[in-house]
Amino acid sequence: MLSIPAFPPTHSLSTRASSNKCRDIDDCRRLFDIVWGCLVTVFLCIWVSVHPNVPPPPPDSPAKRARLQRWAKWYIIEANLPLLHRMKLLATALVAPELIIGFAGRQLAVARFFSRTHNISLTHGFFIVMGGFIDADGHPIVTQKQLWQPGVAAAIRATSEATLEDKSKGDLFSKGIALCQGLWFILQCIARRAQRLPLTEIEVVTLAFATINALTWLLWLRKPLDVREPIRLPLSTGGPASQSLTGTPGGGSFNVDHPVSNIYSQYDPLAATAVPTFWCTTEDDEEVLGHVWILTFVAQMFCGALFGGIHFAAWSAVFPSLAEMWLWRGASLLVTALPLVLLLVFLSDGVLQCPASLFGLLTLAGSGLYCVARVVLLVLPLATLRFQPAAAFEDVDWSVYIPHL
């Protein structure tokens, strides 16, 4: 049963009998309570912290006489494209949350740049960079060249901040619930450590996610959440009428959902109907924000190291086997150290004059090791649920901090 911890025969009786306090269900927690609390916290933190860009417009519904298969495809896939668009960010936040925090930092930098340059609010700046404004031809207005067109910035300023916030699917209540759940979980973890109660591996992983996603939530605090429909301005921002809405200037199709932001140097908003999933800015605007990109990259690497460092909280935890213990320790070391090593190589590139091929090889090897370590840290917490020490089921004694009157 989930409420009864199982002990493998390899552990001694002294280990099994390390705690006899868990006899009253009111003073203890079940394995189900631990797992459920962790899963709910991770889901709420990721769901509320991730703020996607405005997705591409959905395709029209099929004709009334269309086949059943065509209608099924439309209902299941095409009508839910905004949700699938958001799920890509959620999957990235689950596998590599430091990438999301770097993306959020870059978007915040661009939004602040637009806000100062064009005398608009930060919410307006976010709404621009996420593709929330489109021109009369249906092109997203996301570049400086477009914003300097006559009347464009004035039309954006004429759109009230309340109108932009009304587009957001998240309000103070829903975000507050997720924030309170995350803070409550972090408080419980701190209290358990203060009372010398062990944290399970799945709780340590959840603590890492809650911490990183709280930072992401702060970076995107002023960005509208889950906007489905852009605001059309009655102005044209240039571009010949013969230009395709789905092609790049060089011809061919452009995938607006490619996860690598560097490939967007060829992205032309005048040849598309939406911005890419991980869109920040064009290559021309990057030159103005060059130093900011370095700062956001440094912050991203440090957050990656912080995410891995939190896993050291389970360094001395009881594992079902020695192999799992060393797998955890090794993966925690890799996830913590690799972002710092990559940062060191990046910052010393101009001093060491590292060949581009060698730099690429080191980056590829480090990324491969990092992915393996992340998978280990996602699988091991679930595998170790088959054995937990008795003390892990003891609940926090809150009366120590809030005495009964």
Can you tell me the residue ranges where pLDDT is under 50 for at least 5 consecutive residues? Answer: 1-20, 240-263
Question: How are the strands of the biggest sheet laid out side by side?
Answer: 1-2
Number of helices: 16
Task: Give the termini distance in whole angstroms.
Answer: 37 Å
User: What is the alpha-carbon Rg in Å?
Assistant: 25 Å
Q: What is the overall pLDDT average?
A: 80
- The proportion of residues forming helix, as a percent range, comes to 40-55%
Structural class category:
mainly alpha
Strand count, sense and barrel status of the largest sheet are: 2 strands, parallel
Total number of beta strands = 2
Shape: globular
Give the percentage of residues in beta strands. under 5%
Helix/strand order, N-terminal first: HHHHHHEHHHHHEHHHHH
Provide key terms for this protein.
transmembrane helix; transmembrane; membrane; Transmembrane protein; two-stranded parallel sheet; disordered N terminus
Write the layout of secondary structure elements.
Elements: H1 13-16, H2 31-49, H3 68-76, H4 81-95, H5 97-118, H6 122-129, E1 133-134, H7 144-147, H8 152-158, H9 161-167, H10 172-194, H11 201-219, E2 231-232, H12 283-288, H13 290-310, H14 322-347, H15 349-352, H16 356-383
Characterization of this structure:
The protein starts with 12 loop residues before the first helix and ends in a 22-residue tail after the last helix. The model is unreliable at 1-20 and 240-263 (pLDDT under 50). The chain has helices spanning 13-16, 31-49, 68-76, 81-95, 97-118, 122-129, 144-147, 152-158, 161-167, 172-194, 201-219, 283-288, 290-310, 322-347, 349-352, 356-383; strands at residues 133-134, 231-232. Helix content is 55%, strand content 1%. It has a domain at 33-60 and 80-282. The protein is globular and about 70 Å long. The protein is an all-alpha fold and 405 residues long.
